[in-house]
Design a protein that fits this description.
This protein is α+β, with helices and mostly antiparallel strands. The protein has four helices and six strands, in the order H-E-H-E-E-H-E-H-E-E.
Length: about 170
Amino acid sequence: RKAGTRVAISPVRQAKLDIPLVRVEIESTGAIYRYMRLSREIVEVPQWLRARLDVGETTRMVHLRCLHLADNKPFQFEDRWIHIAAVPDAEGESFEAINPNEWLVKAVPFTDVEFAFQAEPAEADVAAMLGVKPSTAVFVAERTTWLSGMPVTFARMHFQPGYRMVSRT
């Protein structure tokens, strides 16, 4: 008969995840940051990524492989794809002086982001970059960003064993 206030049985909680700048993350520990661009190529997107991003067969992307170091020790190995149609300036950027993580955060807005986190055994190439034995469990963060429905970037970041991600609201 009477309308009243309803209290949700299980209130919804939200966690805010910022896109961290790896340089800032390393420097905040007191370590000296160093970045190495290992490779950069412009390629048509492989089938597995086309399916994931829902882009066409002839879609071109900048593919980068990078290593981020803390006090000259491997901290993060980054495998990143940047969609040229969404970020035309990426085609001409060498990413030698600035890492793609920092460049994108400064240069390109995004409307949506997806994060995925997992531990997985390091494949031989990743293990070599991180200086660990193959099959060592490493923390992997995947991030995809979009701008108004168009994919901007997909990145897989592999971290040293023992890495801990923290989010605070």
